[in-house]
Amino acid sequence: MSFQSAPTPRLLEQIANEAKSASSHEIRDQIVSNIYQTSRAVCEEVVHYKQPPQAQTEKLDRIFTSRIWGFPIMLSMLGMVFYLTIAGANVPSSMLASAFGWAEGELTLLFQAINAPAWLHGVLVLGLFRGTGWVISVMLPPMAIFFPVFALLENYGYLPRVAFNMDRLFKKAGAHGKQSLTMAMGFGCNAAAIMSTRIIESPRERMLAILTNNFVPCNGRWPTLILLASLFMAVGYTGAAGTLVTAAVLMGMVLFGIIVTLTVSWVLSKTALKGVPTHYTLELPPFRKPKFWNTVLRASLDKAWYVLKRAVIVAAPASILTWVFANIYVGDTSILMHFIQLLDPFGQALGMDGFILAAFILGLPANEIVIPILIMAYLSQGAMLELDDLSELKQVFLNHGWTWLTALNMMLFSLLHYPCGTTLVNIYKETKSTKWTFMAFAIPTAIAIAVTFLTASIARGLGWV
Amino acid sequence: MSAIKVALAGNPNTGKSTLFNTLTGLKQHTGNWPGKTVIRAEGSFEHKGEEYVLVDLPGTYSLFSNSADEEVARDYIVFEQPDATIVVLDATSLERNLNLAFQVLEMTDRVIVCINLIDEADKKGIVIDEKKLAAKLGVPVVKMSARNKIGIDLLLNTLDHLVKEKINPSPYRMTYSEEIERKISQIEAQITGLFGAELPSRWIALRLLDGDDALVAKLKEYIDKKKDGVTANELPISANS
């Protein structure tokens, strides 16, 4: 064609269609690889190095992001972090618990010496002091180890490699590769991770990331998982073997969360949120030796201290309230027990009990307070246990009929259940849709109920408990 | 004479915005690209009596229209046809950055390649032969450090030469396998039939072969605008200029 015809959309359409039918899958690959090869060839001629280039990062990346070694390394890193946390937290936790136990005894003596009324001693010492003491003992040591170790990995530059490895899986699930980044963010805080989904441009893929973010445990839920895993999951093992089993269980929880994330993404991308995943570029920063003490200090102060503060601020008034509700009687049972008894049949069907469900419901504002509320509710049941040892805490649970199934299902429920209040508010702010906010609440809750019901039925059906 | 339009393209984190700020100072305003949630920054400056309008395109790794950012950057170069496009490259990772430069070279002739962060490259012992690179790419190459104001004058003078056509670039063009080349020339002929020399027909042919639906939509829009008697070149750059 040598003449210039007047351009019309129809003519253009014809040409575009012709081009499409002449096109093949290899064209995009060839275009891209052509550009890359040319860039490389030009650089080889034009760029010189006075000293050999720092190839260390590239070498490490070949291992960390290798198709064969990438995942095993990732899993063993995760396992190592958990092992360090559990092995290191046991001793300081017990020490803290006995310190608080001693202080409680002294306080009781003091209250007796000044002839304080019994209810005051009940509210302040048995409610407030004991509840807060337990929260600090069980939550502080694991957090003081877990967060700094995680921060060291992060500052070393390992987390982007995790995102790189996970990218392939997310693509297969019909989601955006960047979802692996927002998911990694979720390990810290789901509410913050919801904001971080802004990096995903396609609204469809962004919604997938928002709806599934909750399936990775956040700061507020790590303590619950770590505590229950170390108390109940390594029965029959002692010492290092026990710690190893506990770490493996935690790793299993995280992997299960990731599998649920991918499955839900996949199902949604085939149904309500249909579409093809888009490309993106991920720049891997060079590996850097982290400033050790700086990182450790910052992580301890920023994260561990922050989570603990939040837990204590809520736990302290919650301790008092729980004690009050547990000691005000309507008829012959306390207000708290009325509520718990109402929930109990449902809780039992899910392999848990009314106390646990009540803790989860009252814990909606923040996941950090689920364990504190649960401990408070149990302690208020007249079981006058001294604060001495972590095994005492386990005894409290056992007295309320706990088995390994109760612990497992509480862990599963914690992992899978609805996002916390802050996260839900953020989801509404980001999606501006009540429908999707409700879905973000309903999908995890339905999955949590289904999974725990299933494990409870199977374990009971097979006579394991 | 109306202002000379110059676009700034480059990967993220190459100091593109530093260069933009250095050149335009306080004479800039920001807004959104029409219909997109991508920020558009535009500024102006004077050099040798000429008035320049500089548009800071979003930082992207490629121009295959994978994202809103990439679409905005690409559409500006192809349809708004700036008088010059400055591609800012990071001297410390030239190989990755060149990928974008080659994509720009397929769309327009009037390109200046600007190797930024040259001071950091020095520190790392990286030496870049810019004359050889200019010969390879077929367009002027300027080494600079926008942060330390090194090479700014050279860049401005090169820009002056380019827009006054004292330099005539002949950019490097990728060649593909025989089969693809045959398909390209077939489609290219038809595109030239539609648009003549107004648009880069070889590049459009290649994009159509890659099945770029976003581009087809944009081309239709372009045709409609032409029918209404407005060509892209006459579109107001901004309300103020």
Any overview of this molecule?
- The complex is a heterodimer of chains A (465) and B (241).
- With 465 residues, chain A is mostly helical.
- Helices cover 74% and strands 2% of the residues of chain A.
- Chain A contains 19 helices and three strands.
- Chain A has helices at 9-22, 26-46, 56-64, 70-113, 118-156, 158-172, 179-186, 190-196, 203-212, 222-232, 239-270, 292-327, 335-349, 354-362, 370-379, 390-399, 404-416, 421-431, 434-461; strands at residues 47-49, 329-330, 333-334.
- Chain A has a two-stranded antiparallel sheet.
- Chain B is α/β, with parallel strands linked by helices and 241 residues long.
- Chain B has two domains: 4-163, Rossmann fold (3-Layer(aba) Sandwich); 178-234, no CATH class.
- Chain B is built from nine helices and eight strands.
- A seven-stranded mixed β-sheet of chain B has the order 2-3-4-1-5-6-8, sandwiched between helices.
- The chains are: A mainly alpha (465), B alpha/beta (241).
- Chains A and B meet through helix 1, helix 2 and strand 1 of A and helix 3, strand 7, helix 5, helix 7 and helix 8 of B.
